[in-house]
Amino acid sequence: MSEKERALIARTHKEFGTCLTGERLKEDFKKLGISPGMNLLVHCSLSKIGWICGGPVTLIQVLLDLLGPEGTLIMPSQTSANSDP
To answer: Is the pTM of this model over 0.85?
Structure first.
C-alpha cells in the first residue's frame, strides 16, 4: 500500500469514523423510502456518503437487493475521454 493510500484511509477514517456496513446502508436507504419494485436514479459522490466497507460494490449490491428483481437501478456513466465533439 502506498503512502498516498495510507494517508487517504487515515483521513477518511478520521472524517467519517468507522466504515458503513451494507446492513447500515440498507437500514438508512429503507428510511429514505427505497423499496422493492422502484425505478431508482442514483448519482452520488461516494466520498460524501462516507467510508463504505467493500466500497462501491457494497453500495450497488445493497441498492440492487432493496430494489429486488422487479426494480431498476439507473446510474449515469460518463468519461472525460469520451468528449470529442
So the answer is: no
Of 83, 26, 27, 35, nearest in space to 60 by CA = 26
Closest CA to 55 of 15, 19, 85, 13: 19
The more confidently predicted of residues 1 and 71 is 71
**Joined grid coordinates for residue 39:** 425505478
Q: What is the DSSP string of 11-69?
A: HHHHHH-SPBPHHHHHHHHHHTT--TT-EEE----HHHH--BTTHHHHHHHHHHHHHTT
Triad 25, 31, 33: Cα angle to 5°: 105
- What are 37-63's pLDDT values in tens digits? 999 999 988 878 878 889 999 999 999
